[in-house]
Amino acid sequence: MKPKIKLKALSVGLMILMAVNSGCFYDQVLPIELEGEISYSNDMQPYFDSKCVACHNGTGIPLNLEASVSHNELMSGGYINTTNPSNSLLYTKIVPGGSMEQYSSSAETAMTLKWIEQGAKNN
């Protein structure tokens, strides 16, 4: 192989490696700045409705996240720790490596943590 061809092949190989490596970036939870107060009824419940209620609906799988009972279930079931929000069971289930991570985007995960940090209000 001529030196110019080797250099070109090496360059193409490096570009492909960089593209493949950068494709894994989505797995990280990025710090997302959320403005204002998180509303349970306007932010959290719609998240639960779209991603969780299909399974967590009171028919066998623990934690009923249907609108009429979800806040009470979270608070009385030990899923929320307002003293140490990042140790809340709800949060640890949805972060990367958690058993429910596939059901939460980075934005939803950040929103959940901020809601807990704000006192997990039923607002």
General description of the model:
The chain is built from 5 helices and no strands. It has 123 residues and is mainly α. The protein has one domain.
Biggest β-sheet strands, sense, barrel:
none
- Relative helix content: 40-55%
Rg result: 21 Å
Q: How many alpha or pi helices?
A: 5
Uncertain segments are 22-31
Query: Secondary-structure element sequence?
Result: HHHHH
How does the overall form come out from the CA principal axes? elongated
SSE map:
Layout: H1 3-22, H2 40-51, H3 70-76, H4 89-94, H5 106-117
Helix pairs in contact: 2-5
Index terms:
46% helix; mainly alpha
Short account of what is shown:
The chain has helices at residues 3-22, 40-51, 70-76, 89-94, 106-117.
